[in-house]
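User: Could you check the structure of this?
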Amino acid sequence: MLNSVFIATSLDGYIADRNDGLDWLHLIPNPDNLDLGWSDFMDRVDAIVMGRKTFEKVCTFDCDWPYSKPVFVLSNTLTSLPDDCEGKAELIEGPLSGVVKAVHQKGHSRLYIDGGATVQSFLKEDLIDEMIITVIPVLLGGGASLFGELPEPMEFEHVNTEVLLGAMVQNHYRRKR
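Assistant: Sure, the predicted structure tokens are below.
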């Protein structure tokens, strides 16, 4: 069983700007539309657990549903998902250990954990096994931070670093246990 994060941050550690904007993610030209490791990562996961805010943001994207894997939307406030998400995503709630257990019982053992608050919550419960973080060379000066306070330090070991498009750095870390 593996819980993984695949996310981009600014140099100063933000995953969204002060207005919850993501335009800065496209600052580096990508004329060949390389996926920067996304397909390989998605081939390794069975399902996605994302927070409500991330789900709502994905629903605003001007494209077809971007996921071919089951999506579990973590929310204690939503009572239903939009009709056009029928069969694409399902709500899940409760303590994170119970959420992970429920998703595993549905046959999904390799989970992609997505969304700032969700990643922070999983880290607080020591439920993240690996992180792949792509750093984009921009200082946002504020916004949604990837990391929050933790009850104690957590050690990760470096797996790999790759320079992407001659400008971004993708770091892969695995939790030391």
